[in-house]
Amino acid sequence: MGKATADDIVMTEVFADAEHDLGEIGGDNGVDEFAMSDTSNEERNNSQKHPLKQSRSAQVEARNATLQIIKTVVCISIILQSSNERCNYLQGLLGIFFHLMSVPQKVIDVLAHMGLSISVISIHNVIHSMSKEIAANIKQGIDNPNALCCLATLWAADSRNPAPSTIAVEINEFDMLKHHINDTYSRPKPGKHLSPRLTAFAWHVQDILVQHG
């Protein structure tokens, strides 16, 4: 077999990194270090010069840094919640999320024992408290004089009101038909294949294709 070119070596390393993508996301850099230790200095310099290899390495480093921050926050939250039950902000958010996603109760109990969620009873109490708060906000909005004035105006003109104080606006189907017949914006002019509406629509489509490709 002939000697492999630098581009072939670089592409082989790129595809090898793609196969170990899950390990990189999990922060397992041992595979990459082992592979880099076996390569020669020439291959290492060629891989560093390759833009695809550099961009992929930058993405892996950014993901590992982000995951490191997430792991640190989770560990600190578990330690704080184990020392003080009121320090359960992360656990509360995860508990509400599990409730919205219909996670089984046994799974939530296991996660609560692990320190990653609040208990099922606490989740139900939070949901009940949030419902009461939302209901109070809605009631406060109804008690607003401006909202009541708007509702009174609409009810006064409503056709279902047994004693309306104002005459409701009635829609005549013949007026709508007359308006449709006299509409010239949706009909092509003499000598034109497209109506003004379709012409404007075609211009917008062409502008989107030109500007955004």
Keywords for this structure?
213 residues, mainly alpha
Provide structural commentary:
With 213 residues, this protein is mainly alpha-helical. The protein has 2 domains: 134 residues, no CATH class; 43 residues, no CATH class. The protein is 72% helix and 0% strand. The chain is built from 11 helices and no strands. α6 packs across α8. The longest helix has 33 residues. About 12% of the residues have low confidence.
Short description:
The chain is mostly helical. The chain folds into 2 domains: 134 residues, no CATH class; 43 residues, no CATH class. It has 11 helices and no strands.
Largest sheet: none
Low-confidence stretches: 14-39
Distance between the termini: 46 Å
Structural class: mainly alpha
Instruction: Give the domain tally.
Output: 2
Question: What percent of the residues sit in helical stretches (DSSP H or I)?
Answer: over 70%
Number of E strands: 0
Strand content: under 5%
Average pLDDT confidence is: 75
Radius of gyration: 33 Å
Query: Outline, from the CA principal axes?
Result: flat
The helix/strand order is HHHHHHHHHHH
The number of helical segments is 11
Write the topology of this structure:
Layout lengths: L5 H14 L1 H5 L4 H9 L2 H9 L1 H33 L5 H12 L4 H10 L5 H23 L2 H12 L16 H9 L14 H17 L1
